User: Which sequence fits this backbone?
């Protein structure tokens, strides 16, 4: 399929391109950008008028739970990647805490095969650090690498034994794999369900202290420095973690960090209900929006791991993203069935969906608030994750795979979980008026999703 996208604002941070230009896609590759693109287009080219829209490298989300195999009541490769396409993502990295876990090349092959048949977007796979994600014995990291994993992580869990983590880093370095870590010290967090602070006391819920994350971030920095292996800290939620990473990066320790929209938008007050949130930490959020969505106290769609933190932590995450300490934004898309979430706050599983609200929330908190320009924001979804994982993605270089996202930075819309492509609706942002929307998602030159028109995978 050949297409010519005309008149859009083409932004490719990897090549420092930011200009109104035409983009020609031919045979699944980027063929030309700029004044010459139209003249090179073959006669049968499909033209898309994208004037007023942003055209950028296909967005990458490196932290997604697709739940297949084993938990397909929550999500499947087909539905999870359809949600990714709607959110403007052309590539996702799926986490290994499936059933069975992705701790061997056989499970990798199964996912790879299903993703090729049923995936709407590119699916890259993260393998486990330890067998069964149990934290006790290393997974066969070399054979996972040969199979094709792009990183290893025990996400959902955290390797507690420092000696095992050290050996994992040494192996990962030999195989040039980044190690991604869900930073949680079990002895400090115990059975905490929300941020430890005023609101956990007021609501009578068990606290998950900030030190429970920072302890492992500090451990990871020390081990990265000692081994020279690359460690990527997942879903950073606390001000202390941002500070630790900032100082370590200044010393050139090979560490990196990511943050999720819920952590830079919401705070723990949200668990006390919408009225309290909008009166306090939500007061200045999305200025100019008159209608505020409502939700009750103890709403389990505000329960995730790590939990929503204080306003100071949220501010530190925003700053960390702006100054580059946190170079990647991702969703931690974690679908759960309604019946699982419709229980007491204590018993509900951690996690929320995020693929379809991620781009808008990022635009609202960074671009519309003038914290970051579009090229810097787009880099966090494209060149930065591609570089970390060594993917030949995240750029519009001539000859690159034609993974392209077209979005409208200003379009307002209401996120409605009932019209989501995900199998699950556990989002705290259901009913929120958002600003910024993906309009078309193109994978290897093929339009896999466009506003109004949905094109199914083959
Ligand atoms: Zn996690």
Assistant:
């Amino acid at each position: 399929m050949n297409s010519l996208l005309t008149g859009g604002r083409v932004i490719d941070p990897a090549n420092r391109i930011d200009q109104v230009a035409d983009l020609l896609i031919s045979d699944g590759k980027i063929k030309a950008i700029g004044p010459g693109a139209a003249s090179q287009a073959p006669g049968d080219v499909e033209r898309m008028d994208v004037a007023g829209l942003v055209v950028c490298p296909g967005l990458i989300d490196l932290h997604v739970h697709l739940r297949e195999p084993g938990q397909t009541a929550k999500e499947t490769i087909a539905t999870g990647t359809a949600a990714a396409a709607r959110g403007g993502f052309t590539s996702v990295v799926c986490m290994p805490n499936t059933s069975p876990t992705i701790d061997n090349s056989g499970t990798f092959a199964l996912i790879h095969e299903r993703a090729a048949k049923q995936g709407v977007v590119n699916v890259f796979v993260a393998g486990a650090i330890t067998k069964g994600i149990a934290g006790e014995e290393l997974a066969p990291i070399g054979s996972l690498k040969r199979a094709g994993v792009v990183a290893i992580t025990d996400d959902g869990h955290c390797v507690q034994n420092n000696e095992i983590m050290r050996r994992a880093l040494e192996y990962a370095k030999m195989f040039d794999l980044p190690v991604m870590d869900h930073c949680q010290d079990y002895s400090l967090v115990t059975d905490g369900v929300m941020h430890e602070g005023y609101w956990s006391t007021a609501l009578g819920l068990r606290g998950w202290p900030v030190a429970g994350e920072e302890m492992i971030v500090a451990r990871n920095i020390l081990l990265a420095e000692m081994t020279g292996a690359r460690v990527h800290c997942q879903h950073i939620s606390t001000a202390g973690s941002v500070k630790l990473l900032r100082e370590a990066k200044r010393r050139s320790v090979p560490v990196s960090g990511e943050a999720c929209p819920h952590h830079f938008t919401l705070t723990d007050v949200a668990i006390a209900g919408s009225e309290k949130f909008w009166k306090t930490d939500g007061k200045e959020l999305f200025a100019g929006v008159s209608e505020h969505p409502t939700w009750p106290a103890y709403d389990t769609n505000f329960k995730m791991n790590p939990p929503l933190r204080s306003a100071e932590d949220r501010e530190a995450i925003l700053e960390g993203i702006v100054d580059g300490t946190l170079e990647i934004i991702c969703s931690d898309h974690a679908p759960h069935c309604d019946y699982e979430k419709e229980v007491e706050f204590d018993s509900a599983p951690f996690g929320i969906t995020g693929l379809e609200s991620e781009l808008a929330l990022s635009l609202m908190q960074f671009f519309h608030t003038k914290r970051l320009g579009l090229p810097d924001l787009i880099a966090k979804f494209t060149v930065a994750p591609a570089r970390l994982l060594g993917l030949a993605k995240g750029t519009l270089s001539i000859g690159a795979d034609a993974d392209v996202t077209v979005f409208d930075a200003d379009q307002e819309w209401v996120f409605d979980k009932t019209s989501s492509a995900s199998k699950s609706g556990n989002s705290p942002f259901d009913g929120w008026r958002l600003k910024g929307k993906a309009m078309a998602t193109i994978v290897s030159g093929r339009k896999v999703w466009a506003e109004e028109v949905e094109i199914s995978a083959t």
